[in-house]
Specification:
8 helices, alpha/beta, single chain, globular, 4-stranded antiparallel β-sheet, 251 residues
Length: 251
Amino acid sequence: MTPSIALSGVAKRFGRRQVLDGVDLAVQPGTSLVIIGGSGTGKSVLLKSILGLIPIDAGSIRVDGQEVAGLRGAALAAHRTRIGMLFQGGALFDSLSVWRNISFALGGSAANRRAVAIDNLARVGLGAEVADLKPSELSGGMLKRVALARAIAARPPILFFDEPTTGLDPINAAKINNLIRTLVKDLKITALTITHDMTSVRVIADKVAMLHAGRIIWQGPLAALDGCDNAYVRQFVTGSAEGPIGGLVAS
């Protein structure tokens, strides 16, 4: 089966710092893969590289079998339409109403776009009364839900989640985790998530990969995570101050 996403030897340097150093990774269709790793290990750079927001220095990035590294113009724009993105901060437009945020990238009449927005609000557990509100009128949990509704509005086959529970209290974080899991399953979407939150990992993931020192140092099914004998993975999963990972361990 052709992977939805396949990375081979992906490298990226910023000045003297080698952020990605030969990343090999494959995400199968309909699979939810979560990438874990400490702050500054290149997780966000990896997502941005797949999206074409950052050019890679070496390697191959294939989406549904098509090489996407180096795409430009219309080809790059077409590639990006296949991927929905839930940004860490939501990234909603403050000046637009909720329904216009959700339907921003959609075509058709305003009435049709509003109807689509309301349908997607329902999918994330919000009522039609939210449609005409501005982002400033929403709570943190509601903002995340609206951002998620926007990410799925065009029904992209692939979804990226960048630290989806950042800034949320434990109750709202749990709701977002469960919602993501439900949407990925119901819509049969391939999902790639980056997170520090091990609670999120255990809810969202089918498979887990750890990025450290610019490379994937372990990957496997979620069920194998707790029994993993890789010292770096064990330290990160347990949040221990003692272990091979230097500095502060992200939690």
